[in-house]
Specification:
With about 400 residues, the chain is α+β, with helices and mostly antiparallel strands. The protein folds into 3 domains: about 20-90; about 95-245, no CATH class; about 265-375, Glucose Permease (Domain IIA), CATH 2.70.70. The protein has helices spanning about 5-20, 40-120, 135-140, 155-190, 195-205, 220-225, 225-245, 370-375, 380-404, and strands spanning about 20-30, 30-35, 265, 275, 280-285, 290, 295-305, 310-315, 320-325, 330, 335, 340-345, 355-365, 365-370. Strands 5, 7, 8, 9, 11, 13 and 14 form a 7-stranded antiparallel β-sheet that branches. A 3-stranded antiparallel β-sheet has the order 6-12-10, with no helix packed on it. Helix 2 packs parallel to helix 4 (about 155-190), helix 4 packs parallel to helix 7 (about 225-245) and helix 4 crosses helix 9. The longest helix is centred in the first third of the chain and has 82 residues, at about 40-120. It is rod-shaped. It binds zinc ion (ZN). Zinc ion (ZN) binds near residues 277, 279, 281 and 358. InterPro entries: Cell_wall_metabolism_enzyme, Dup_hybrid_motif, M23ase_b-sheet_dom. Keywords: Coiled coil, Hydrolase, Membrane, Transmembrane, Transmembrane helix.
């Protein structure tokens, strides 16, 4: 016999011992009845009761477990909902900023393209446009830093950040090209004997010319891209310098030799007294063509005391030329003249001892010695010709937009 069988039998014996046959006497109205509760019947009842109890326990447990699970699920769902709501709020907050940044980028792109078209046309930006060292005065270029977008921004915004970086790189390139050109013009002006700093400062005060400064959205735009912010000033400086360079009358006013020693204090040919001679004299045959020394607009045609017949041309940037002692005119007030265009004929009117041109250059009303302008070296003239082409294109664009 195995020990298992033995054990089971022992349990069976204990179980059987719990249930004994019982006999119960019941007396009702004097009659005595005899009830017998058998052990078998007791066992059946006990088994049924046990089974019921077991079923109840099972159901209860199931319900309880279910409840636990549902509570857990609910908590999970609630947690997810809360996260979604928070995310949505964050996205809504970002969406406004993303839209704002996108609008700024869009506007800046349009402005950059306009600047590029206006000042460089179809020519490609020079690859080596980085401003030279020691050119701080003209360049004042700052190291380019791409402003980082908010790192908490969702991934969609990172695409904007990439666009911004590219835009900033283009903007920096444009700035370098502008600075390089401004530097060229500045050097040429300095070689012609004028002070570029003063000219730019005076132009800034006057804000003359057709330059339309960037009046874009303040706010994010100013915080974005340093080079973009620097461009406006750089473009203004470049335009002033180039316009000034073009306005400097370096063209020969007559194809005759000038008396290069005639500017300054000298003996007045009429009184013999020491007097300031504010121009250069060009002796030559009567009727020699007199040419505009720079492009500009004729502001005076007529007689002036002492000067005789005079033509005056305004070249912009505070620069004016005067041609005196003329014998005839080939232009009229208000006419636009090109450099080298004939405006008059040489003569000897006014206080003149013989046929000659008296040529004067005035910068903001003050006479300056034109000799350095007329003796400009080829390299300067080359820069000047480049600038003239660009400013000419600008003027044409300006004229076209005005005509519209
Ligand atoms: Zn003179």
């Amino acid at each position: 016999m195995s020990s298992l069988t033995t054990g089971l039998r022992r349990w069976r014996q204990r179980f059987d011992a719990l249930f004994q046959d019982h006999e119960i006497f019941v007396r009702t109205h004097g009659h005595v009845r005899f009830l017998r509760v058998s052990a078998v019947w007791q066992k059946r009842v006990a088994l049924i009761a046990g089974a019921v109890l077991l079923v109840w326990a099972g159901v209860t447990l199931t319900v309880f477990v279910n409840q636990l699970l549902t509570a857990g699920e609910r908590a999970e769902v609630a947690r997810k909902e809360a996260a979604a709501a928070a995310g949505e709020a964050r996205i809504a907050q970002y969406r406004d900023r993303v839209a704002e940044i996108a609008a700024d980028l869009d506007e800046r792109q349009a402005q950059l393209e306009e600047w590029k078209d206006t000042y460089f046309g179809s020519e490609a930006l020079p690859a080596d446009a980085a401003p030279k060292a020691g050119a701080k005065d003209a360049a004042e270029a700052k190291p380019v830093e791409t402003s980082a977008l908010d790192p908490r921004l969702p991934p969609e915004a990172q695409a904007l950040a990439r666009i911004e970086a590219r835009q900033e790189a283009f903007s920096a390139h444009l700035l370098a090209a502008v600075d390089a050109r401004a530097l060229k013009a500045r050097d040429a002006i300095a070689k012609l004997g004028l002070d570029p700093k003063t000219l730019v400062r005076k132009a800034s005060v006057g804000q003359g010319g057709p330059f339309i400064p960037w009046r874009g959205r303040i706010g994010r735009a100013s915080a974005l891209g340093e080079s973009f912010a620097a461009l406006e000033g750089a473009l203004f400086r470049m335009e002033v310098l180039e316009r000034t360079l073009v306005a400097i009358p370096s063209g020969q006013p007559a194809h005759v030799l000038m008396l290069s020693s005639s500017y300054g204090y000298r003996h007045d040919p009429f009184t013999g007294a020491s007097a300031m001679h504010a121009g250069l004299d060009f002796p030559g045959p009567l009727g020699t063509p007199i040419l505009a020394a720079a492009p500009g607009r004729v502001t005076f045609v007529g007689r002036r005391s002492g000067y005789g017949n005079v033509v005056e041309v305004d070249h912009g940037q505070g620069i004016m030329t005067r041609y005196a002692h003329l014998s005839g005119f080939n232009t009229s007030v208000g006419a636009r003249v090109a450099a080298g265009q004939q405006i008059a004929k040489m003569g000897s009117t006014g206080r003149s001892t013989g046929s000659h041109l008296h040529f004067e250059v005035r910068l903001n009303g003050v006479a300056v010695n034109p000799r350095r302008f007329l003796e400009a070296k080829a390299d300067v003239l080359e820069v000047k010709a480049d600038a003239r082409q660009r400013v000419g294109a600008l003027a044409r664009a300006d004229g076209a937009s005005r005509a519209r």
